[in-house]
# Entry
Amino acid sequence: MSYKISEDCTACGTCIDECPVDAISEGDIYVIDPDVCTDCGSCADVCPVEAIHPE
# Structure
């Protein structure tokens, strides 16, 4: 299982610094690569708008 970023994402960048495997890509809405994500949840823990959830 991996995490997914919803359309609520504000592209603030907080999650990118928290990802230990660099699975998150920047954009208007950030994207998590499910093949790289290790399901650690660090990104979801720091998201200020709660836009990251387990898939």
